[in-house]
Amino acid sequence: MEGDKPTTIVCTVLAIDHTSLCYRVCSVCERTLPDNDLTSLCKFCNFNTFNPASSSPSKRLFRVLMSIASDTKVLRVICFDRAAKVLFGCSADDFFDFAKLHPFAAVSANRILEGEMFRMTLSKPKNGNAQHLRVVSVVPLRSGFQPAIESLRELYGKRVGC
């Protein structure tokens, strides 16, 4: 990529790291929360993220590490929530709940999306410590493209919706 200007490419999804597709955030300030501490206050806004009486509990957002191939190279990129929703067709919370009932849903989503072609806009990370290009936008190129959750519902049945 040249400079800091976003670049749009046509690419194919080679693989998705299905071991960690999402992370927890405070629903008020959207700062990252630890996955292993389910009873904490958000350290940034002091919101009780797990109060059942609360109308705004914590939520999950997508963070999908993937390998893509353009006509000239293979890249490892990271796809955050807004762009990942195009691929998955639901929120990270809904996908997480679906995957709790269907433990192989993340592996199956990888297989479903593998080989799909997209027009992706990529940008360099703003954080100097970040390692991967960011996916800013995703546009499916196949006219019959279905988000992963649609295929998963067909595969596992329609018992859980997103």
UniProtKB/TrEMBL annotation:
Domain Replication factor A C-terminal: start-end pairs: 8-128
SUPFAM superfamilies: Nucleic acid-binding proteins
UniProt-listed Pfam families: Rep_fac-A_C (PF08646)
Top-rank taxon: Eukaryota
The protein's name in its UniProt record: Replication factor A C-terminal domain-containing protein
InterPro entries: NA-bd_OB-fold, Rep_factor-A_C
